[in-house]
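Technical note accompanying the year-one report. For the benefit of new consortium partners, we illustrate the data format agreed upon in the data management plan: each record pairs a sequence with a structure-token string. No post-processing was applied to the example shown here.
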Amino acid sequence: MFCGICQDLLKKVENFEATVKSVTSSESADLEELETLLDEGVMLDIDLPDLTLLKQVFDFICFDLFLFHKLLDVFCWLTSMFAIYWLTFFVTDVLTE
């Protein structure tokens, strides 16, 4: 019985490590897949170096998304400021004619 549990755990760890290697070596990693793998790694409840790598990739992608959203906010703000400036210029030009 104990041997069967150990073999099952070993299979799960081997499958987990193989999946992590394939995900982290691919060019496009899916956030949901990374999150699922992180949850699986935590559920295995053993210390794996792949878990650290997986967490780093996940954090890197999340930071990139955070940075992208901040840049998008700045762009939208600049666009609205330009529109207000242009509208003010247009209205004053029409009113002074």
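Partners are asked to follow this layout when depositing records. Residues 71 and 77 are 10 Å apart (CA to CA).
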